[in-house]
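[Automated response] Your request has been received and processed.

Submitted sequence:
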Amino acid sequence: MALSLPSRAAALATRTRFVGRRAAARHYNFGSSEYLACFGDLPVPDGARLRRDAVAYVEGFDGGAWRADPATTLVGDRALTDGDLFDTFDAFGDVNGAARAATAAELRALAAHVAAWDGPRDGRGPARAAEAHLFGAGAARLIGDQALDFQKQDGVTEIEESLQASAVERRLTDALLADEAAGRVVVSRAPVFVACVSNFSNFLDLSRKALRSLDVGAPVVVLSRASGVSTQHGYRWAAALREALAARGGDRGAVSYACCGLEQQLAPGQDKRANFQTSKAHISAVFHSFRLLFGRAIISRNGLEAWMLFPERARAEHSR
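Generated structure:
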């Protein structure tokens, strides 16, 4: 039976209220004067210094360092080392170090740690002090480690863009926490699982996912790349972030690292018996390899310089 006119109007009004509430939640703060005020007045990165320091780091890098200090699961103040060693690889399939596969007991310890986490609800002080260190004095290492692990990324431009984007995102986070304090929103502090990309990890994973989550007091679990390819860099920045937090009044335990395969990574979010709420793992836009999309071309403002760190690799690729 067709609805009478009043019933249709009532149904439309109900739907309008529902959609309006849903849109308001989805587009929180977007386009407001407070939102627009977060943009502009951006820092001007010193690209020449970043480039110079990164080249010096790569040239002085000890090729055996990532085997002597394997990637491993990090929980609380501890590195868990009972698992078996396996080789890790750069993006071209060459062995570049080692990692330890977490045991079942170690993964249970990680889950228990995250379930019991009760840190401050506002972590901006130590998180931003650690950020300033990692993207300041530590930037050469971020660029260099990613270049050594992935060997196809222009890390200089990435850090420049991250420094500017992060300035905006910190202001947006400040506005979010101010609205929470005023009772306008509720911020979830469920554990955040960071599944690292291989190429833009400094920007997407470390800055946008991990640091902004730490800002609002959410614990972070960084996941190894399950294939073992280009996984060293994510581990190195996670370990460096833990130490930078601890040195600046924060807690290493706010950042964990899970060195395990895909099956184990999926388990925490799927386990119906889990006694803690979990956020969905951040899924970044899928970046296909530039090489797959554009042959041997490098599409980046300073892309050539990324290759110039590895001239022998560039020559080998050009000969294919």
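Summary generated for your ticket: The longest helix spans residues 155-181. The mean pLDDT is 79.
If you did not submit this request, please reply to this message.
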